[in-house]
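Quarterly update from the structural biology core.
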Amino acid sequence: MKEFLHILRRFVPPYKKYLALNIFFNLLSAVLTLFSFALIIPILEMLFKVNEVSYYFMPWDSASLKEVAVNNFYYYISVAIDQWGQTTALIMLSVALVVMTFFKTATAYLSSYFVIPIRSGILRDIRNLMYRKIVALPISFFTNERKGDVMARMSGDVTEIENSIMSSLDMLFKNPILIISCLAMMIAISWQLTLFVLVLLPIAGYVMGKIGKKLKRVSIEGQTQWGVLLATIEETLGGLRIIKAFNAEKKMTSRFDAENQQFTGIFNRMNRRYSLAHPMSEFLGTATIAIVLSFGGALILSGSGDITASQFIYYMVIFYSIINPAKDLSKAVYSIQKGLASMERVDKILKADNPIKDPDCPVELPRDNYSIAYRNVTFRYSTEPVVNNVSIEIPFGSTVAIVGQSGSGKSTLADLLPRFYDVESGSITINGIDIRNLAVKQLRSLMGNVNQEAILFNDSFYNNITFGVEHATLQQVEEAARIANAYDFIMATEQGFDTNIGDRGCRLSGGQRQRISIARAILKNPPILILDEATSALDTESERLVQEALNRLMANRTTLVIAHRLSTIMNADLICVMHEGRIVEQGTHSQLIAKDGYYKHLVDMQKF
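Predicted structure, tokenized:
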């Protein structure tokens, strides 16, 4: 239970007010439960006439509180019998029992009423924390994780926490209070019998605990396999075109069937163990009642106990009232074990370390003349360096192009500039200041990115172009769309800039998606541009128009261009040729042609 208490310490503090009200009404409900059951004793004694003792009023300070309270209670009942008769007194006691039961159930409802905001609030907080962490974590985290598994933790695991831990909160706050209150009353009635009960209960608890631990292990396996299933579904939806093109439906179906069968086996084991909770708790509870009934009956029959027959009946009523809360508590423990397994998986995201951090004292950059320098930069994803001891100077207002074969490290070099990853050794500076000394938000606000793969959202043209840009006017958006050669096809749609473009822009062609992403970068109007194959998806005419627009946009800006299509970077101030993570040549287009090396070879391969 330490893990569960740790979860409460993490998430409950904002809801202390609701927790206090819940505990208050639970205590009130427990007290009313005990006193409503206490009315059963005089009712039974009056019905069966087992008590012929005469009672006299005792001053409240004349003996122990318990003795005085019991005596005076019976005194007032005897007065009522003398004045109105046994039948009327019995009716009065029955009405009092109903009234007390009403207040008991009302307070029980209020305790549940105030625990609901705690449950829903904690779940909302967990979802918010997870989403914020997912957004904050570096890209490197998700290169090692399956997207489907992350989605499973965000959806399935959070739902499991809701269904197990949060649904058990009311039982966990209410039942221990009721059990402790009943045990206190049982001790007051007969400490001998209660001592015997307290020896039996831990044995039952130990048996339930052993099964609960096994359930937690199986729950972790189940949630992990659910993540595998979601990952397969996500990959299938993303690659449906390729699956159909290569007639791989049978292969993917077989793969999914095997994973689904494995999940079903784990699910069966988990739910069989979970289903064992109720029958086992019922069996242990019944066995315990039978043992207590035999032991208590023996005490009464032998005359060696400190309890009367009517008190023993009341004792058994209280003890039986513990059984159901104890069952619910055991079921809650089972549910919590399942939920803790999901919480472990959620915590792998919530507690994941983010190496891309703001410095303690961020340095402020001046607002213009941004020059960039890569100095002996090395970076690796695993063992072999992807970027190896690279140095580049990008003066303010100049355009530097990086070219080379696929896998040579071009895009990685560009990703290091906005700190999507941090360099392993060396440094990247802007105006001589190491980018690790800048606030991440300030650093990225300086840059506009156009990637090889146009990343768009299931939203309107307008919201995609203004993404990350606040207070943009429609006129500014239209102008950005015109520069990117996107205005005409946007206005040809039914609702113009308000038209939804579908999931990842699926209603657009590749060239149209790219032009929308270029319009987004144009609207941001950043001092530093990163163009990673920005025109690769455009037809020849659109490429020419967009390239002209980009040339105008790049004026008086510091620009880093990644290009395969060499015709787009012929006018760059500096061209760096990368090969296997190193810069092997650099210079202008004419200088590199004259060297007759790597660059000349690339140019020749692109000629007809």
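The longest strand covers residues 385-394.
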